[in-house]
Amino acid sequence: ALISKTRLLSENRRKGRVVQAETLEAAGHVLLLTSLPEDEYSAEQVADCYRLRWQIELAFKRLKSLLHLDALRAKEPELAKAWIFANLLAAFLIDDIIQP
Description:
Layout: H1 2-14, H2 21-26, H3 43-66, H4 77-98
């Protein structure tokens, strides 16, 4: 929470803006909304799922950036699928080589 508030103050100071007290207070919190049943999932489980989902989002962002997966050139569905699978395989192989 302290890091979020510090970052918020620093960024706004650099841009010459004043941070409202409500904004500063909100910077220390994370609000997660879900349709999961409250009696089956604790707040901690929901937060864990969100963190995992965020890591998946970051992984796809890296893939799109590094392997240019955002520029699908194939027009035929089967060719597009093969192109995506080949690039994902390459990404997994690269990751396996890089990871200790």
